[in-house]
Design goal:
Elements lengths: L1 H17 L5 H7 L5 E5 L6 H17 L3 E5 L6 H8 L7 E6 H10 L11 E10 L1 E5 L8 H10 L5 E4 L5 H13 L4 E4 L3 H10 L4 E5 H9 L4 E5 L26 E8 L4 H15 L2 H9 L3 E2 L4 H22 L5
Parallel strand pairs: 1-2, 1-3, 6-7, 6-8
Antiparallel strand pairs: 3-10, 4-10, 4-11, 5-8, 5-9
Helix pairs in contact: 1-12, 2-10, 3-10, 5-12, 7-12
């Protein structure tokens, strides 16, 4: 697995190096010459969209041009990323890539219209987003152990909602089923907002949600948290166990997203964007705004982000192989 990740990281580095040519320093100095389009591959109102809209104004200030957020949801983040891959490689179109579009889609879709390694220049990780398994207050299970026991008694009859096929929340349910040795019925929604509303309303008993979407409803008692999906408990939900603490050995899953550009974007342009983004991510005011909605910002170098994408392709590819899931 590590050798595969290393090959992918080498491809990323080679792609970045291949863009070098005379005159790119001048291109970087002139960039950007017009507004920058930032494609978010999720619907408006979700946690990723909310954080990106926090980052866009200070990023625009640093670049000296407006940064226009454009939502292009669908296919687990794939529709938006396809648009970025096909855009001119001049830095005026950038994209947000997450676990679904940059990692899982490679194994989920037999005819993916882009290659997550060859077609993008990774710029930086932006954030990790914790997930939480929640229940409607009237649902039968009050703990994760209860839910798993219920699923063993009635395989494929325990319905768990998520924000869309191919998303990290969808795959987190599959991983839970595999490590918990149970069959779960996955209910796909077009975004975490509709999934959250339906579990709050009792139309579906359980859901895998990102923390920012669920936190307010948990605090108000409209949702019951069963477990968080990371390795550690969350400061926002200190009494909620991790899935591993609740008995699912080896379970770990968190959402993440980062910034990419079309492959062959000039290195000087990539450096300008990356340096401005790191300055924004390091701003204490921006960090506080993100923490207020349950998101921890986390920047990286392009090489680190490329290696991380490679490791996620391997991880979720194995989960998808075991599940047998394929999407058209």
């Amino acid at each position: 697995m590590r050798s595969g990740m290393t090959r992918r990281a080498a491809l990323v580095a080679a792609g970045l190096a291949a863009t070098a040519r005379p005159g790119v320093a001048q291109e970087g100095a002139r960039y950007p010459s017009r507004p920058v389009r930032l494609v978010v591959p999720f619907p408006p109102g979700g946690s990723t969209d909310a954080v990106v809209r926090m980052l866009a104004p200070p990023l625009a200030d640093g670049l000296g041009q407006p940064v226009l957020v454009e939502n292009r949801p669908g296919a687990g983040g794939g529709l938006g990323l396809a648009a970025v891959a096909q855009a001119p490689a001049d830095g005026h179109t950038l994209g947000i890539g997450a676990a679904g579009g940059l990692a899982a889609n490679k194994s989920l879709y037999p005819k993916l219209p882009y290659d997550p390694v060859r077609d993008f220049a990774p710029l930086s990780l932006i954030a990790h987003i914790p997930f939480v398994l929640v229940a409607h207050p009237g649902a039968p299970a009050s703990t994760l152990a209860d839910l798993l026991a219920q699923a063993r008694r009635a395989p494929k009859e325990v319905a768990v909602a998520h924000g869309g096929n191919g998303t990290a929340m969808h795959l987190s349910i599959q991983l839970l089923g595999q490590l918990g040795a149970v069959g779960l019925s996955e209910i796909a929604y077009k975004g975490t907002g509709p999934a959250t509303l339906d579990v709050m309303g009792g139309q579906v008993p359980y859901a895998m949600l990102d923390l920012p979407s669920a936190l307010q409803a948990i605090r108000s008692g409209k949702l019951r948290p069963l477990a968080v999906t990371g390795r550690r408990r969350l400061s926002d939900l200190p009494d909620v166990p991790t899935a591993e603490e609740a008995g699912v050995k080896g379970y770990e899953s968190t959402g993440w997203f980062g910034l990419v550009a079309p492959a062959r974007t000039p290195p000087a342009v990539l450096e300008r964007v990356q340096s401005q983004l790191q300055a924004v991510l390091a701003d204490p005011k921006v960090q506080a705004s993100a923490r207020a909605v349950g998101v921890e910002l986390e920047g990286s170098t392009p090489a680190e982000f490329g290696r991380f994408i490679g490791s996620e392709i391997d991880k979720w590819g194995q989960v998808i192989k075991v599940s047998g899931t394929r999407l058209e």
